[in-house]
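Quick one:
INPUT:
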């Protein structure tokens, strides 16, 4: 039977952004916890792993250095038999704090990770990419930024690699484990009682059906598309085709720079010195931690700051926000007027004016989308315009004379002539004659 199912659920039957070799190591290391055979033990003396003290980023020469080490998970920070596991949520908090720290003039993501879970990875990458322009954000692979770790690294302004470093593994992997044979040998049979045809898809107590495997493959393909799109959005000079062509390979530093997956080859110390020199000579704007009322906070208020900064009050931010909102509304109204005009000016709108107005004012369809709808609709038949002159109104009140085949009586002719004369006189009088 599977022990620790909560751990197994985060490794099997779920998409992972991780280097495949590391996944094998995790399965091997955690196998005994899941009820798999114990791995062979070495006769050599095993020294304990060094203890990692919890903590945030470090400030080095005005740079906030955030270590991204080990396997990455959604929400956790722990030591396992085969890995140090770090949570995206903790990294996100460190990044937000460094972004607001007045002592940090730039941020460096110091990465040595094979990747990890899908959950949480894209949110962290989006957070990093959205902060571009607030402070310089750099990443360095020393020595590995694979899969989810590369997703995070690519979101920075620059991505460097150490001489022996590797980057890539832009892909998604999922594993399924089948214990049915092992359980059968032990005389154990598991019966699932469930509602919903797909409730127990991918369970470890039976071989994986072809239909379920196809569904899991579609899930993997979906996350692969998100991964490719995120890298293309972050890295200039790459395309979806070029990223897919990597086929999730891992590349050396020279290969990565040549392919546009990284920017330069440099050691961590050299990179830190370069960033420090750049920010000390720059007037790059940065975020400022504030107390209520808009006054900046700093540990050393009297220290000179080589970076030019400006202090903004809450009213300044409110005014800027309102100005942006008004500009957006103005642009939206102009765009809507242009759309309405385009629809009502369509050649297909002639004879279908009412339908064109309805489509223009009650939908968000563009002129290109409305044109075929109008083209497929019948043209309205124009009604005969009603008489508008005084003479025509009088003639309409008289009605059509009943003219038969024979000459009408003399008195009827006289009456008709009298009525016509009266109508004509009335019309002339109205016209001022």
């Amino acid at each position: 039977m599977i022990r620790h199912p909560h751990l197994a659920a985060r490794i099997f039957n779920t998409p992972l952004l991780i280097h495949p070799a590391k996944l094998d190591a995790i399965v091997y290391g955690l196998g005994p916890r899941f009820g798999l055979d114990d791995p062979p033990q070495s006769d050599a003396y095993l020294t304990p792993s060094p203890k990692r003290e919890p903590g945030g980023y470090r400030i080095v020469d005005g740079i906030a250095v955030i270590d991204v080490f080990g396997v990455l998970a959604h929400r956790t920070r722990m030591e396992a038999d085969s890995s140090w596991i770090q949570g995206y949520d903790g990294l996100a908090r460190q990044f937000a704090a460094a972004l607001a720290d007045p002592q940090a003039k730039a941020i460096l993501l110091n990465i040595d990770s094979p990747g990890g879970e899908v959950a949480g990875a894209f949110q962290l990458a989006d957070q990093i990419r959205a902060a571009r322009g607030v402070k310089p954000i750099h990443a360095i692979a020393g020595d590995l930024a694979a899969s989810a770790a590369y997703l995070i690294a690519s979101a920075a302004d620059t991505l460097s690699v150490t001489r022996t470093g590797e980057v890539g593994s832009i892909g998604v992997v999922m594993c399924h484990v089948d214990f049915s044979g092992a359980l059968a040998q032990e005389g154990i049979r598991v019966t699932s009682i469930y509602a919903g045809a797909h409730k127990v898809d991918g369970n470890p107590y039976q071989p994986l059906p072809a239909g379920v495997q196809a569904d899991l493959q579609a899930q993997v393909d979906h996350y692969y598309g998100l991964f490719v799109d995120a890298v293309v959005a972050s890295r200039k000079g790459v395309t979806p085709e070029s990223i897919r062509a990597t086929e999730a390979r891992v590349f050396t530093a020279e290969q990565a720079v040549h392919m546009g997956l990284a920017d330069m080859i440099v050691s961590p110390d050299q990179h830190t010195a370069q960033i420090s020199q750049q920010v000390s000579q720059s007037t790059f704007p940065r975020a400022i931690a504030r107390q209520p009322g808009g006054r900046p906070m700093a540990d050393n208020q009297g220290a000179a700051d080589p970076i030019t900064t400006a202090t903004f009050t809450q009213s300044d931010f409110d005014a800027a926000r309102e100005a942006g909102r008004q500009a957006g509304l103005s642009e939206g109204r102009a765009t809507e007027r242009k759309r309405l005009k385009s629809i009502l000016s369509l050649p297909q709108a002639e004879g279908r004016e009412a339908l064109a107005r309805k489509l223009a004012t009650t939908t968000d369809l563009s002129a290109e989308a409305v044109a075929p709808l109008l083209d497929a609709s019948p043209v309205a038949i124009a009604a005969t315009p009603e008489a508008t002159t005084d003479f025509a109104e009088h003639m309409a009140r008289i009605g059509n004379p009943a003219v038969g085949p024979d000459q009408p009586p003399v008195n009827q002719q006289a009456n008709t002539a009298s009525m016509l004369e009266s109508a004509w006189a009335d019309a002339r009088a109205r016209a001022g004659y």
